# Entry
Amino acid sequence: MSYKISSFVFSILTLFTITLVLSGCGTDPEAVIESQDYHVCEHFTDGPFSDVTAAETQSDAIARADSTPGFVIQHLPHTVYRVALNDRNDHFDGYVVFYPTATEVDTHDYVIYMDKSVAPVIYDVSDSNRVITPEMETTTVAECHLIRYKAIVEFTTGHEYALYLNSDTNEQISMIIPALEDDVHDH
# Structure
């Protein structure tokens, strides 16, 4: 009898462990990020796309963000934003506004992916223009040759962020900013 109970308990524990693994509990964070990298790469090729025009100044970007959707990058995890920068004769630059919209949390990790090797300067407009430092940055993504810049950044829901983009040679930068835990297979 004791043997049958032990065997039954072992079978239940094994089934429980398999269920946890298959449901995503205990998933390797690097595997999730790699899967997201691959998924984002598909969007850089296939879209959907949304065109955004960078404002010349941060104050202009913020003032126009509420009334002109073409200056705002929203948290649409499957949309690639094609940002047109301002021509300054010797370089291209501009500001766009980002509103994170993750639910049920105050702060959330997002991943900024761009098709150019240009690191944005990120300002938390809601917190006295504090500059946000990415938790991680890289210019190479093994899963996708189209991604030239990737950073993990902690954003606070309800805050307004201004991203300053500056490039010597690129008049347009494509970017996508999904939340890190977004389901990479959910369309």
User: Anything to note?
Assistant: The helical segments are 2-23, 29-46, 58-65.
